């Protein structure tokens, strides 16, 4: 693993979505995390901007569970380690547009972007208890920054895995 990818517990109130989600499956995902007591796959977050690259549904589920932080691989989004693709046909999307949309709240429709890492990440299951408790975190998200909403699902109806599928 390179120094451009690090594991962190990231405060949920600092994360920015760039894509809408399918709210229908979030309850089931939250229940699975609660039942198992663990988040199996960390989300992926762009270093410096805290834009969620992979894991919008896990973040929504953690919020429903009252978590204060999410396990995350923090990556140098602008490095060659991260490739930006589309789930469906369409013109290429510049990485800068992902960041801009997250900051502006103009979210992409569900399953527009697909982020691919050029390296394997090790397993890093994180106990739910570590995400619920701990020292005080920063204040809530500033007004005007929207949370994700939407309709996206994988064809089998499950929330996306850490690899974006």
What brief labels describe this structure?
alpha+beta, four-stranded mixed β-sheet, disordered C terminus, Conserved hypothetical protein from pyrococcus furiosus pfu- 392566-001, ParB domain, two-stranded antiparallel sheet, 8 strands, 165 residues, 4 helices
Could you please describe the fold and organization of this structure?
The protein is an alpha+beta fold and 165 residues long. It has a single domain, classed as Conserved hypothetical protein from pyrococcus furiosus pfu- 392566-001, ParB domain. The protein has 4 helices and 8 strands, in the order E-H-E-E-E-H-E-E-H-E-E-H. The protein has helices at 26-36, 56-64, 95-104, 128-132, and strands at 5-11, 38-39, 43-46, 52-54, 69-75, 82-86, 113-117, 126-127. The strands form 3 sheets. The chain has a 4-stranded mixed beta sheet with strand order 1-5-3-4. A hairpin with a 5-residue loop joins strand 3 and strand 4 (52-54). Helix 1 (26-36) packs across helix 2. The longest helix is centred in the first third of the chain and has 11 residues, at 26-36.
